[in-house]
Write the structure tokens for this entry.
Amino acid sequence: MTQITGGPVDDVDRAILGQLTEDARQSVTTIAENVHISRAHAYNRIAKLQEQGIITKYTALVDPLKAGLRSSAYVTLKVRQHSWRELREQLKAIPEVHHIALVGGDFDVILLVRALDNTDLRRVVFDQLQNMPGVLDTQTFLVFEDLDTR
């Protein structure tokens, strides 16, 4: 089971979050049994975690290769100072961008880009990312194999 530590949650909340991270489709009854609390208590805790914004959404993990996304890359961006807020919204609108992180170091932003093939990946990097106002430089790191550890 995934261990979640830190933050404004107690051990019961962490156990519930671990269960949901493992399988968000399991019933509240199953979660309650696995965490050793009542179903009503589990339901109330999950509702509280959602209200507090700790649980932000439920989603499916998709195997990119089986979904036809045969080319993946991490793309780093160096961006013009003070352009992050506008850039963030533009990046969120690109369907091939699966993850966005503002980071510190030699570059400012790192993206996980998943595309149909290398031609599609090239289009995203050269035609979309490099042409965005505020993007000064990009670097692309092809992914040869990736494993989801959650």
